[in-house]
Design a protein that fits this description.
The structure holds 2 protein chains of 2 kinds.
Chain A lengths: L1 H17 L10 H20 L4 H26 L3 H6 L3 H32 L7 E8 L3 H22 L2 E9 L5 E9 L3 H5 L4 E7 L10 E11 L13 E5 L17 E5 L4 E5 L5 H23 L1 H13 L6 E6 L4 E4 L6 E3 L1 H4 L4 H25 L4 H6 L1
Parallel strand pairs in A: 4-9
Antiparallel strand pairs in A: 1-3, 1-5, 2-3, 4-5, 6-7, 7-8, 9-10, 10-11
Helix pairs in contact in A: 2-3, 3-5
Chain B lengths: L3 H20 L8 E2 H8 L1 H7 L5 H12 L15 E2 L1 H15 L4 H5 L1 E4 L2 E4 L9 H14 L5 E6 L5 H9 L3 E7 L2 H13 L6 E5 L17 E6 L14 H6 L13 H13 E10 L4 H12 L4 E8 L5 E8 L1
Parallel strand pairs in B: 5-6, 5-8, 6-7, 8-9
Antiparallel strand pairs in B: 1-2, 3-4, 9-11, 10-11
Helix pairs in contact in B: 4-5, 7-8
Protein name (chain B): peptide chain release factor N(5)-glutamine methyltransferase
GO molecular function (chain B): nucleic acid binding; peptide chain release factor N(5)-glutamine methyltransferase activity
Organism (chain B): Drosophila rhopaloa
Amino acid sequence: MLTRKLLNLRLGHLARRWTSTDPLSIQNEKLQAYLESLRQEYYAVRVNAAGNSKSYARLAQLEGVVSALEQRRVLERHITSAKDMELEKDEDMRQLMQEENEVYVDLLGKQDQTLLQELLTLSDDEVYTALIFGLNAGAGGQEAMLFAQELYDMYTGFFEHMGWEWEEFASESTDIGGLRHASLMVTGEDAFRWLRYEAGVHRVQRVPATEKSGRMHTSTASITVIPRPADIQVHIAEKDLKIETKRASGAGGQHVNTTDSAVRIVHLPTGLAVEAQSERSQLKNRELAMKRLRSRLVQQQLESTEASKMATKKAQQGSLNRNEKIRTYNFVQDRITDHRVQGGTLHNLDGFLKGGEQLSGLIEKLQLEHRKERLKGLLETWQPPKEAIKKN
Amino acid sequence: MLRQLPRSLRMTSRLRTQVNYATNSPTGQSQIPVTRALEIGRWAEKLKAAGIEDTEFNLKCIVSHVLKQKFNSVPDSFAQLKFNPGQLADFERFLEARCARMPLQHIVGEWDFMDITLKTSPSVFIPRPETEEFMRLVIEDHKNAKSVDLLEVGCGSGAMSLSMLHSLPQVEATAIERSKAATVLAAENAKMLGLLDRFRVHNHTMEEDKYLPEELKDQKYDLIISNPPYVKTEEFQFLHPEVVVYENLNALDGGSDGLRVARLVFDLACRHLRPGGKLWLELGNDHPPLVKTIMNLKYEGRLKFVASYSDQYKRERFVQIEKV
């Protein structure tokens, strides 16, 4: 008896969902029509695809949604309707039907989640394979710079966690271990789709290490995420380089034992000069200096190309306002609050600042919100094609 | 006088608060800021007076060694660093030694060579920055080879062979070395770097008709590398104090024209290189043209001079020779 009651409750809930007005519920009529139109588009494209790479790309995009939709329909068919249930006289049989229904309703719920997930992925648009990740200490002096360094460690940890390549091409740190600013280039298929939600002002509230009277401070650091256009290439010719070390003259080799490690490289065509002395090995310093030079040249090109200006503009319109305060790190209460999502409060700051699962979990949440918004917008403006209506 | 007294009192009290602040360290021992230790000892001046260039780099090496931190993790400004009394004593002892021109690499007990860090030991030759450049060329030349049997003549600390083994997995290396201390050090370094399975070092002195140890006498190699002693006898008076006093002169003495040992290596290469195999040598300033002449006159049909290369200081110092 109890199970039947529970089941009734659940079915009742399902019935209510049939009349749902939530635009992102699978039961919503418009969404259903939209899904059907995607399915029809999929088959139409598949028939005519023959050798057209654009068509294949579209097919690959649609495949997930369509197969999820079809699986869902199969499941739906397995559920015995209430009417059939009433017609069934045998009590045992009816019991069985209900048990079966229970399983299928459960499966259907899961399938709906999958379908929604696929649909949401479809609503992503921009694809950039690389981006420029900027980190700037904001208000709060030394403390803000210390916080910027912590964010730097968190994000570089996160890049590693996600398996993205990254390279630093400019940074300025302070003596007490803080960071004024840093620019990193991050390369990875989906890096932009994840990191775009991190752009904005991050706020820290704590008693700084530099504070003697134990007062709590609020400081900020800001993050910019700019997609990098794909066409930037830097070629450095050996003959364009002037490589200098401290030791300019005198005997070399076995005759002397100088620890000549600092290197300075001048790029003659642009006049750019870079130095490296953080390693004991001269060769390592030279590699480091070359890397810096390359990055500086990339940066120079980036700043000059019209394409990147356009991309930047677009990225800023597409994502959130750069000057918005997006997240608070409160050390006193050991919590992180993201101001853009419901239930965006997490605990365990130390774990979060490692840039692993916790951060990716939060970004996933933000991603989902963003995709839902996009899908809602899409559905609002979407009109069912004429033929589809006729067929129905 | 009296008016000055309160001021000096105030100064000492300020000094005291500073010291108090420093003792608030977690270890509970009194600590001294590194910058202060430098000022008191006037070490920068002393190093300069001792004829050491690049004092900042020397200081940073020693500071990082004393604090047991990696060199590249120590900030250029020492403002945040502190010594405890033990470290301060070490610091001063090391700097005294440096002022007496003990090589920096011996003081810190290890040195970086390309991508690897090697232990150093008194009496074993310390690899130079140019040798990194030399090895870069050799590695570049062999990076696409399927497998390389490498022989190094006079490996010292093992820097050349080990850096090559470290960057190319297809290389197997054998080395000979006349100094016992260096033989032990090279094996130690190989073990430390986890390269012992591809590195064999033999304590052997190369002589005419006994170029390699008995067990290797029929071995052939794809590549022979060497940085043989090449300092001419007449040049010994111009060597740096670090070199004359602290380094094993056996590793430097190349006879009257600096090629005494190199000539032995030529003969060794004739016997132990496979046809098409390479001999790479790092030599002194005016040696490559001389080597070219020697090849043409004495080794025709056996060895062929391929090319010479300049180091980063634009000195023609490296030669590539091929077995015919």
